[in-house]
Amino acid sequence: MTGEGSSGDIALKTLMLSPLALIWVQATGEIAYFNPAAERLFHLSQRRVVGRHLAELSPFGGFLWDHIAPAFEAGRALVIHDAYFDAPDGPAQRFALDLTPDEAGGCLAIRPWPLMGEHPKSEGAAEAAIGFGRLLSHELKNPLAGARGAAQLILHSDPEECRDLVPLIMREIDRAQRIAERWSKIGDVAPEPFGALNLHEIAREAAQSARHSLNPRISVRELYDPSLPPIQGDRDLLIQAVLNLIINAGEALKDVEAPRIDIRTRFRDVVPGAFCPKARLSLDVLDNGPGVDPRLGTDVFSPFVSSKPAGEGLGLAFVSRIAALHGGGVEYQRQRVRTQFCLYLPHTSG
Fold first, then answer.
1. Nearest alpha-carbon partner for 325 in 243, 200, 240, 237
2. Does the structure show a pLDDT above 50 at 101?
């Protein structure tokens, strides 16, 4: 008897502490149990819902009943991992639903979108970006050649205070020209041979370049983990990818009262089923702006998708393609009042 009691206590604690919303629903739709995670999801206490029909709780309850009622009628388990609920007072939400029925009812498990880890990712978008390489190459080459010529003239004729900026201008233009040449071939062949790189140096150089184009009101913090191992990659392309993320963050802070960008590196905790599980290093660009327009959904990395009035929508597609070429990926997350883009990269083995 003691063993049975202990098992029952453990089972009850499991239900109570589960991060999943668990609801025991009778075959007729009445609720018999509502765990704390379900209370938080519906903003209703178990005391108020037990005995009521699931469809009566809210529009979301009706949405759930429409999905699980056929499973009860057929006496079969239900597994749905792409259920979308169009909330009448907010944006559409994505859920995974599982139901295991028996004669009396069944346990409904609900995994909301934040717990599924389904942040917008660069999967698929990297391949979609391939066809735009030649367009970028053509558009970049001529203006860059003219800018470099102008910078050379400034180097020999401008006052002393301007001379420190000129090497930076020329270095950036040289790198952009190399990127233009390489980007025109990215869809057909691999980039230049990879070399060992320090992720912090990549981040620092991108941050240094970005500071000259960001609004001076923006506070930029660099938070690096010095224990990270080296990576293998193409220096120019990675710097440009990180620079794109920083510039995007700066543009999102246009109307923010105390704008801030954090650039950090870290080891990544990878859970089963995680995006890019072999890419254990993360370079994150965070800002306190309003985030990506929710209407863009998971298409934020697709070419020509942009919330900017005059944006071409190629910046994040470029980042996703570069990440893919390095065996990694990019993920967008919105965490309370911060926007976060995570560039995942594998580290050098051994």
1. 237
2. yes
The reported pLDDT for the residue numbered 308 is 44
Q: Tokens 């980007």 — which residue?
A: 183
CA distance 234 to 197: 8
- The Cα–Cα gap between 287 and 296 comes to 18
Pick the range with the lowest mean pLDDT from 31-40, 297-306, 330-339. Answer: 297-306
User: Which residues pair with residue 33 across a beta bridge?
Assistant: 24
Report which secondary-structure segment, H or E, holds 110: strand 105-112
CA-wise closest residue to 233 among 137, 322, 320, 133: 322
Residue 299 maps to which CATH number? Answer: 3.30.565.10
DSSP state of 293: -
Residue 350 within a domain: no
- CB-CB contact of 321 with 130 (8 Å): yes
Q: 291-300 — which CB contacts under 8 Å span 24+ positions?
A: 291/252, 291/334, 291/339, 292/120, 292/332, 292/334, 292/339, 294/91, 297/120, 298/118, 298/120, 298/121, 299/120, 299/125, 300/120, 300/332
* Three-state DSSP state, 25: strand
Dump pLDDT digits (tens) for 234-281: 998 899 889 889 988 998 898 899 999 999 999 998 877 778 888 999
- 3-class DSSP assignment, residue 263: strand
Interacting residues of 165 by C-beta distance below 8 A, sequence separation 6+: 212
Residue 30's domain is classified under what CATH number?
3.30.450.20
Cα–Cα dist 180/126, whole Å: 17
pLDDT at 156: 66
Half-sphere exposure of 181 (CA within 13 A, CB side): 8
> Using an 8 Å Cβ cutoff, are 232 and 196 in contact?
yes
Q: What is the pLDDT of residue 178?
A: 67
Q: What is the pTM of this model?
A: 0.51
Identify whether residues 91 and 140 lie together within a single domain: no
> Do residues 146 and 265 share a domain?
yes
Rounded to an integer, what distance in angstroms lies between the CA atom of residue 83 and that of residue 116? 12
Percent of the chain with pLDDT over 90: 25
- Give the integer Cα–Cα distance in Å for 57 and 71: 20
The domain in which residue 61 lies consists of 2-116
In degrees, rounded to 5, the angle at the alpha carbon of residue 94 between the alpha carbons of residues 92 and 100 is 135
